[in-house]
Design brief:
The protein is an all-beta fold. It is built from no helices and two strands. Helices cover 0% and strands 24% of the residues. A two-stranded antiparallel ribbon has the order 1-2. The radius of gyration is 11 Å and the shape is elongated. The protein starts with 14 loop residues before the first strand and ends in a 12-residue tail after the last strand.
Length: 42
């Protein structure tokens, strides 16, 4: 998943994204230099 929303305006912004799939909900935390993060489901 990629998340760059409003990064030009607030580069220090941290975004938390919950991803629902098989099993438990996975949470991805996008910090300043993160562009792509992965969530793995069993």
């Amino acid at each position: 998943m990629s998340n760059g929303a409003l990064r030009d305006l607030w580069p220090a912004q941290v975004n938390m994204v919950n991803v629902e799939g098989k099993g438990k909900i996975k949470t991805l935390n996008f910090a300043q230099n993160d562009t792509w993060l992965k969530a793995y489901f069993d």
